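Our preliminary data section would be incomplete without showing what the modeling component actually yields. Below, a chain of 163 amino acids is followed by its predicted structure, encoded as tokens that our downstream tools consume directly.
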Amino acid sequence: MLLSEITIISAVALASAAMAEPLAGMEGTWRGSGWAKETQQSPQETVRCQIKNSYDSAGLTLTLSGQCVVPGRRLTISGTLTGFDGMERITGRWSNPDGIGSTRVVGVQLDDIVAFKFNMTDPTTGRNLGQNVEWRVSEEALRLRSTDRSDPTIMMSDISFTR
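Predicted structure:
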């Protein structure tokens, strides 16, 4: 009986650790480049970013801060993503105070992927800027890709990062 209880407790602990790995794996300083566009019709713009992520294992929270440069402007980005012990679900906030402002995000973390979605309206133009965002995590690489929420076949960004 005790052996099966230990086995069950170990399995639950390992599952919890595995689910937290994608957020934990995003910790560190990352430099990246790629492209992004603001709306479906906008042209792709070259993007270079530097982000610093810290992970709080007690709170299962990843805090991201950094800057991205596109031709003619520099954007500050920040966010928090929090996991829940024993669950794939994540919640948080994503912020770009130089552009769209701040919005709540909801998503999942699974294997090597952290994915979330957000809906928001551009405060200046009134356009819907909702996106599906996917971070794919590996040992020394991080890839951010996003698609338009209203038409997921339209890519909105593709940025690859290294430590």
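The longest helix spans residues 2-25. Confidence is low (pLDDT under 50) at residues 1-20. Preliminary results of this kind motivate Aim 1 of the renewal.
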